[in-house]
Amino acid sequence: MMRMLVLGAGALGGYFGARAMQRGLDVAFLVRPARAAALARDGLRLRSTHGDFDGPVTTMERACPGFDVVLLSCKAYDLDPAIEAIRPAVEAGACVLPVLNGLSHIDRLNAAFGAARVWGGLAKCAATLRPDGTIQHLNDWHWLTFGEQGGGEQDGALDGRAAAFAAALGQSPGLVAEAVPDIRRRMWEKLVHLGTVAAGTVLMRASVGEIIRAGGRGFLLALLERNAAIAAAQGFPMSPGFMESYRAMFSDAGSAYTASMLRDLEAGGRTEAEHILGFLTDAARAAGVPEDLHALALLHARAHDQRREAKRRP
């Protein structure tokens, strides 16, 4: 039986942790005292069209040795304390499966634990933590994709650990887990997509459809092309099929799609702007790609963060 440690029991961590328990894995949740008390009282509760979950869970407030995989689903701005929280489990032999947005967290995890212990990962799952502590699955997305980093620029070399974990999780209506040899290419594909919707919807404070109806289709497509050029400069060109599908996505005048970064911003919360928009601005500059649109979106988010912090001060 594989043992899995989940940092936190929020939307993504709770969803994938619950599904792993249903598949027979030994799962523990590393949580703060208040969340531990709530889980002890109410158990973990998940509501999903793919099946609900209600049951007791194992929690701990400090990590320990004995785990095969640590699922890391924190926000990018919480990465440093998360690294220290999981360190005892990883230094004892566990692999880290991060499902954060963007790419800059990989270098920080590699520096902390070594690339051999750090997988690349992508989660395609829309869920939220309701005020009562219940995890609500919001749509049909239920995919977890991951793989070893490997040594080449394009593809990684699977050494069996990720494949074994994927086999243990399996493919069921509530979770499709897949270990792949080209995880970095997949992560760049996600960043090209995410960087476009994040920069576009944050800068315009509007959904994709609203931007297009206001005459901004060319603006969104320019962002998409620039992000693709950044990825190509890193050695990960986007395929014609990928570009065709995302040009269609960013041409849909009826789309209500927004980035989670915009939702965080509008709710007055912290954003992952530095982790995503800052990374892309620097990468554009290094690649000789025009950086003005990314830099303007980053400036917009930074100004929001400045105002937010000013309001929080006594």
How large is the share of residues in beta strands? 15-25%
Structural class per helix/strand content?
alpha/beta
Task: Report low-confidence residues grouped into runs of 5 or more.
Answer: 151-156
Number of helices: 12
Give the spatial strand order of the biggest sheet: 5-2-1-6-7
Q: What's the rounded overall pLDDT mean?
A: 93
Radius of gyration: 20 Å
Spell out the helices and strands N to C. EHEHEEEEHEHEEEEHEEHHHHHHH
Q: Share of helix among residues?
A: 40-55%
Principal-axes geometry comes out as: globular
N→C terminal distance: 51 Å
Largest sheet: 5 strands, parallel
Number of strands: 13
Key phrases:
alpha/beta; 12 helices; 5-stranded parallel beta sheet; 314 residues; single chain; 4-stranded mixed beta sheet; 13 strands
